Amino acid sequence: MARVKGGKHSIKRRRKVLGMTKGYRFARSKKERAAREAIVHAGKYAFAHRRDKKNDFRRLWNVRINAGLGKTLSYSKFIGAMNKKKVLVNRKMLAELAEKSPETFARIVKHVS
């Protein structure tokens, strides 16, 4: 049986790795070992930051709701009152209402308090 060296596949694999790191700086875009390491790290950060993004948005919604409430009520008391009254509007929608249509948001606040 003939010996198979696999050069064609090795080159394909290297090109694929370097293609994934296109636009990276210095050795990370030119050298295979550094590029592989960069890909692994990028994957880790992407995974972690997808979760962080959810926290960031929740924090943003809280700030927008609190700004919409103004001096009338604190955020925590408002959310507590909503839970007691069993008003099922999530924070994302409340933040959207507070920003885009304050009169509707004011009606919800009046209903809750």
Automatic annotation (TrEMBL):
Coiled-coil region: none
Protein name per UniProt: Large ribosomal subunit protein bL20
CDD domains in alphabetical order: Ribosomal_L20
Matches recorded under InterPro entries: Ribosomal_bL20, RIBOSOMAL_L20_CS, Ribosomal_protein_bL20_C
A GO MF term: rRNA binding
A Gene Ontology term for the protein's cellular component: ribosome
GO biological process: ribosomal large subunit assembly; translation
Keyword list, A-Z: Ribonucleoprotein, Ribosomal protein, RNA-binding, rRNA-binding
Key word RNA-binding present: yes
Biological source species: Candidatus Adlerbacteria bacterium RIFCSPLOWO2_01_FULL_51_16
Described purpose of this protein according to its UniProt entry: Binds directly to 23S ribosomal RNA and is necessary for the in vitro assembly process of the 50S ribosomal subunit. It is not involved in the protein synthesizing functions of that subunit.
Bilayer-crossing regions: none
Source taxon at top rank: Bacteria
Family: Belongs to the bacterial ribosomal protein bL20 family.
Pfam families cross-referenced by the UniProt entry: Ribosomal_L20
Upper classification of the organism: Bacteria, Candidatus Adleribacteriota
